[in-house]
What we know:
Blueprint: H1 47-53, H2 56-66, E1 75-79, H3 83-92, E2 99-104, H4 107-116, E3 120-123, H5 129-136, E4 142-147, H6 152-161, E5 162-170, H7 182-185, E6 191-194, H8 202-210, E7 220-225, H9 229-237, H10 239-242, E8 246-250
Parallel strand pairs: 1-2, 1-4, 2-3, 4-5, 5-6, 7-8
Helix pairs in contact: 2-3
Amino acid sequence: MxxxxxxxxxxxxxxxxxxTIDGTQAEFVRIPHADTSLYPIPExxxxxxxxILSDILPTGFECGVLNGKVQPGSTVAIVGSGPIGLxxxxxxxxxxxxxxxxxxxxxxxxxxxxxxxxxxxxxSADGHAVEALMKLTGGRGADTAIEAVGIPATFELCEQIVAxxxxxxxxGVHGVPVALHLERLWDRNIAITTRxxxxxxxxxxxKVLGAGxxxxxLLITHRFKLSAxxxxxETFANAAKTRALKVILEA
Length: 251
């Protein structure tokens, strides 16, 4: 039995919006099964911060940090410094890990990660990310390796950098098969976790937000009116050029 309710897998309800029915990029939206997906907004809460709290932050936290069993003093490696990886970076700091190592191909996003609290960054474009991480960890690897991209290369990188006794926490959405290298991992005492966000952590995250202990608005880089949604999508699609993280749409 899972410790938390798995709202994302409810037999009546579950993951519906943007999956089996249309998503919420409209002026008005009807929410089926609202009792397991909506939370009241605290008075005075920042609406833009709440947009990030609706999905990005609990996804990084639940699927990456909680499933990854981040511990005080531990070494965390996050593969992918996009919005989800950065959300995992922000929320991993709740548990005071000794090191948070961000791995990505984009120097701009790695620079953002440094500002958000990463202790080390590695650009994996040269193909030597494993060696770089092992050097940083004295050859041990990462106690928690969080996959925040969703392609075979990044999951296999996690398999290479996880320490003995560690956890690979998958967040990424994988559309094609990925090799599981049990010939290397069978004796390493590792765990591999997968999860669809349940947003059970939202009440806690709302309290943390209210206390000023986290600023999810850091992830917002661009704002557009709903009427300019095509331009907004183009901006996000060309993130390497536009340096976009999260794009806010206003009616």
